[in-house]
Each structure stands twice: as C-alpha cells, then as structure tokens.
Design goal:
Layout lengths: L2 E3 L4 E5 L2 E4 H24 L3 H27 L1 H6 L14 H18 L5 H8 L2 H14 L14 E3 L7 E2 L2 H23 L7 H17 L16 H20 L8
Helix pairs in contact: 1-2, 1-6, 2-4, 5-8, 6-7, 7-8, 8-9
Length: 261
C-alpha cells in the first residue's frame, strides 16, 4: 500500500521555539545508546565515571563531525551561500561518514587525555552506535529529506511536503532497518561470544556491514550531494574506505588475533 507522507517535521511549538521530530529522535537515540553502554560498562566492570566523561567527548565529536561532513561532503555550495544554516542541526543534515570521523577523533582525544588504552572501550561503545543511526534516519523521514528514487512498488512513499504526487523508495527506512539489524547482530554476538572476540572485532564488524549496506542502498536514493567523476554517488565513494578497512581487518588481522582478556 502506498503511504502518503504528509507528516509535519514539527512535533509542537512553545512560543517561538519549535520541537522537531528529528531532534527528539536524535536525542532518543543518544539516550538509548548511553543506557545500553552504561549497562555494558557495569557488566564488564568498567568504571562508569569514564563513560560519563567519554560521552561528552563523543556527543561533541558526533555532532561536529556529522554536521561538518554534511557541509563538506554533500552540500558545500549551499552552506557557502548560507553559512548561518550550518549550526541549524535541528533541521536535519548529519553525515554518517562525518559522524564516524568525528567519533574516532573524539575517542582518540579522550583516551590520550585519560591515558586509557585505545582498545579498552572502543568495542563496547560501538554496539550502541546503530541505534543512533536508525533514529536519525527516521528523523530524515519526518523531514522529507534524503529521499529515494521514484518507484512503482506498492511500498513506496509519496512525500507531499515536497509537492510531489508520485511514490519513492523509503530509503530512510531501508537504512534504519539496516542499522537495527546490525545492532541486533552485534548485541547477540556480545551476549554470547564477547570474550571469544578479539579487540576491534565490533568496530570493523559495524563499519563493514553498515557502510557496505549503505553502498547498495545508495542505488535507490535520489541524488544527494555533489556529483563525482565516477559512476557512483558521493555516499558510495565515502563508503568504500571503511569497507576496505573492514575487509582488510577480517582477512589479515582477525585470524591472527588472540581473544580479549
């Protein structure tokens, strides 16, 4: 059945302040990821005070990296002409590739300051990342952004806010389901086999599956971002390096690693 998306991106207003679905879903994803990671820290005997300070770094790195990624990778011309819109993250526009870079830099800075081994927390932290990614994509759906190509399938979505009357692939939900499936797989592996996995297993498991899935979902997306000189989108081009890193890890490093202590 064709779904008509005439949803307002605004949940409610308090005077001049707008509370948007995108912001609410993003915040919900962060809270859920933090709660999950907090419980994992307690289970593994890690100091939760470390998580509290680390969370501040990661949230800043996530938002800054995701927004700068959107500005630099996808819409440089728009933001060059409208620099005041760079800070309006509540309107949407967060790049998962930029978020990944921002999170990595934030964690690197934190572990250097606190003199913690880089591999100590990174695997348990990444388990909650797909939750945030899924919530952000659902927020994109409410904003009628990052839309799919037109489709004749009966599960298409008509985005009335774009002034359209034809259905498109609901790629926002494709990516949300991808993220939730990866989360389910990682959580299952963590519960059953965590001690039998080597350091960085979850990191490369996540980036390999997520960006590999992103590469294929991009074929169903309407153009988002500048054209490349290759027959692929900017999102696909940016997804290749993390996928290659994951393949290299599982092909050459993983077989030689010892189980975590």
């Amino acid at each position: 059945m064709i779904f008509i998306n005439n949803l307002s991106p605004i949940l409610f207003e308090i005077g001049p302040v707008e509370i948007r679905w995108y912001g609410l879903l993003f915040a919900t994803g962060l809270i859920l990821a933090y709660t999950l990671t907090f419980n994992i820290f307690k289970k593994e005997g890690y100091p939760t005070l470390h998580l509290d300070s680390l969370t501040i770094y990661l949230v800043i790195g996530l938002i800054a990296g995701a927004r700068l990624g959107e500005v630099l990778f996808y819409e440089p011309k728009y933001f060059l002409n409208n620099p005041g819109d760079i800070l309006k993250i509540w309107n949407g526009g967060l790049s998962s590739h930029g978020a990944t870079i921002g999170l990595f830099i934030a964690y690197l800075i934190w572990q250097k300051i606190h003199k913690v081994n880089f591999s100590k927390y990174v695997d348990v932290l990444v388990i909650g990342f797909p939750i945030v990614a899924a919530m952000v994509r659902i927020g994109n759906f409410f904003n009628s952004e990052i839309v799919g190509l037109p489709t004749t399938k009966n599960f298409g979505v008509v985005f009335k806010k774009l002034g359209e009357d034809f259905p498109r692939h609901p790629v926002q939900f494709y990516e949300a389901f991808l993220s939730l499936a990866i989360f389910g797989a990682m959580f299952f592996i963590y519960k059953k086999y965590y001690k039998q996995t080597p350091p960085f297993f979850f990191v490369f498991f996540y980036i390999g599956l997520y960006f590999g899935g992103r590469f294929f979902i991009e074929f169903f997306k309407d153009l988002h971002g500048p054209l490349t000189d290759l027959p692929i989108t900017m999102g696909q081009l940016l997804s290749i390096p993390p996928v290659l890193l994951a393949v290299a890890y599982f092909a050459f490093v993983f077989p030689k690693q010892k189980y975590r202590e």
